[in-house]
Write a structure and sequence with these properties.
By secondary structure, this protein is α+β, with helices and mostly antiparallel strands. The protein is built from seven helices and 17 strands. Strand 15 and strand 16 form a beta hairpin.
Length: 290
């Protein structure tokens, strides 16, 4: 059964309900619960996708553990049994929770692109640049870049994040912090890119969030999940096409095939779309963490 909300299962104040995650206050720490809700084009869709939250939380926990030796993060633990009577149904939330440090979020989405696709491709088509970075002429859609580029966005809790240049980021958060976030983001991307390559997966691009705890920059939110990264199966890679990515692509493709206007709540997703999306999430988890 899919989990749409944990509000009735948590004996703690709900601080924030995002499209997928719910944030609860445990006093010293935050409790993050990852639900099975799925969104597209800024709408939360119905129904929820079984196992999606389990996959997102498990994959994030895996990557946080892989990188913790050289990249501090917000994780305290992911064991629902340690929460005692805070959780009213532990089995319902097993593999879905993360207890974290209370970091102060830095309001920059740190995006790294190793390939020219998606929003980066659209920018390149119109200006030959991505977030103010001049790229070589004649690149083709989905081409691998000579080296990864850092393309930040200013976070907006309502609506879309806003692509900004590195100069704009420096003006917003200061040069020292901007350069630190850029370096950490590129280091993380290169680590995961090489890991994925060994498993037949291309990490095309990804995004990170960082926060501050006691004056130290730490990694927060989620990391290298299908919701925060663009994964391509190596065998499906090609130039000049829309590559069928290893995430909620069945949902996007289905919505694109309908007459939905993207300005109103869409009709519930058909069962076959939900099933295929669930299968994809479980497949990327298995390929990444096996």
């Amino acid at each position: 059964m899919a989990l749409s909300t944990a509000a009735e299962l948590i004996n703690a104040p709900l601080l924030y309900k995002g499209k997928v995650r719910e944030l609860y206050d445990l006093g010293e720490h935050f409790l993050i619960v990852v639900t099975d809700r799925i969104s597209a084009f800024d709408y939360v869709l119905e129904p929820a996708v079984p196992e999606k939250g389990n996959v997102l939380n498990t994959v994030s926990a895996f990557w946080f553990d892989q990188t913790k030796g050289w990249m501090p993060n917000h994780v305290v633990h992911t064991n629902v049994d340690e929460l005692g009577d805070i959780v009213l149904d532990k089995e319902a939330l097993r593999n879905r929770i993360m207890v974290t440090k209370k970091a102060e979020r830095i309001d920059i989405e740190c995006v790294v692109r190793g390939y020219i696709t998606g929003g980066g491709w659209r920018q390149y088509q119109s200006s030959g640049t991505v977030n103010g970075i001049k790229l070589p002429e004649g690149l083709r859609k989905n081409a691998k870049l000579d080296k990864p580029i850092f393309t930040p966005a200013a976070k907006n809790d309502v609506g879309h994040d806003e692509d900004i240049s590195m100069e704009q980021m420096k003006a917003a958060v200061g040069e020292k912090l901007a350069l630190e976030l850029e370096a950490k983001s590129l280091q993380l991307y290169e680590f995961a890119r090489d890991y994925c390559e060994q498993r037949g997966i291309i990490l095309a691009d990804c995004k990170f969030e960082f926060g501050m705890v006691d004056g130290e920059v730490i990694l927060i939110d989620e990391i290298f999940t299908p919701d925060a990264s663009r994964f391509w199966a190596k065998e499906k890679y090609a130039l000049d096409i829309e590559i069928d990515s290893m995430d909620k692509e069945p949902v996007r493709a289905y919505l694109a095939s309908t007459d939905w206007d993207k300005n109103s709540q869409p009709e519930p997703l058909p069962g076959h779309v939900v099933e295929e999306t669930s299968r994809r999430y479980k497949e990327i988890k298995d390929r990444l963490t096996r």
